[in-house]
Amino acid sequence: MPRFDVLTLFGAYFEPLKTEGICRRAYDSGAMRVQTWNPRDFTSDAHQTVDDRPYGGGPGMVMLSEPLEQALRAAQASRQTAGLDPAPVLLFSPAGTPLDQRHVARWAQSPGAVLVCGRYEGIDQRFIDRHVDAEISLGDYVLSGGEIAAMALLDAVARLQPGVLGCADSAQQDSFSDGLLDCPHYTRPPSYAGLQVPEVLLSGDHARIARWRRDRMLELTQRRRPDLIAAMRNQGRLSARDEDVLADLV
């Protein structure tokens, strides 16, 4: 039962995760918990200041260490009161390790983490040096803050909790779950706008369907993400039949 404590100036961002969509089942059932902590609540001045100008000059503002540190202490203390060990601290940052399904699966099976959502030009490096265990990135672009990245992680983790998806096999067939992109999917009607559902999917032959789906996954991944194919090859995770399919694509 993972619990995620989120340090954020905008806690309202996270409320729809608990009340909308399939992933709300994770919260309704208690399979996953999220609590937000606003650094402004841990300031000591009348203006609840959480940022200041950067040393050395330059545009923008930098988040102060002290309010973040106090919010972190409160979150960890709350976890301890709930009988949980101190959690690792994750910061969402363009400099972080790219988030992938392997990481998501690990966090889904963990007791959770403290998620730090930066804002402005960033966070005082001394907070990072003292408290952050890992930095995570969604990709090579910059967001206004860490909240969207945190929500992406929480959504991905929530859907892996027991009972959240309608079919337990759904998560196992997702893109990246076995290293490949997912195959195309079709539903009714069998003919739409002059386009037909592939005959094999209507055949009822489960072995043929499984082979077709695997072939399409290989084909799509080779075309769009050859780096994933290379990684699977290096790990010895491609069968001889897989290699034959890939060879025919050249």
TrEMBL record:
It is found in: Cytoplasm. It catalyses: guanosine(37) in tRNA + S-adenosyl-L-methionine = N(1)-methylguanosine(37) in tRNA + S-adenosyl-L-homocysteine + H(+). It comes from the Bacteria. One of its GO terms (cellular component) is cytosol. S-adenosyl-L-methionine binds at residues 118, 138-143. Residues 3-230 form the tRNA methyltransferase TRMD/TRM10-type domain. It is an enzyme of class 2 (transferase). GO terms for biological process: tRNA N1-guanine methylation. Keywords: Cytoplasm, Methyltransferase, S-adenosyl-L-methionine, Transferase, tRNA processing. Its main location: cytoplasm. The keyword Hydrolase does not apply. Its EC number is 2.1.1.228. GO terms for molecular function: tRNA (guanine(37)-N1)-methyltransferase activity. Specifically methylates guanosine-37 in various tRNAs. Belongs to the RNA methyltransferase TrmD family. Homodimer. NCBIfam families: PRK00026.1, trmD. HAMAP family: TrmD. PANTHER family: TRNA (GUANINE-N(1)-)-METHYLTRANSFERASE. This is tRNA (guanine-N(1)-)-methyltransferase. The lineage of its organism: Bacteria, Pseudomonadati, Pseudomonadota, Betaproteobacteria, Burkholderiales. The gene is trmD.
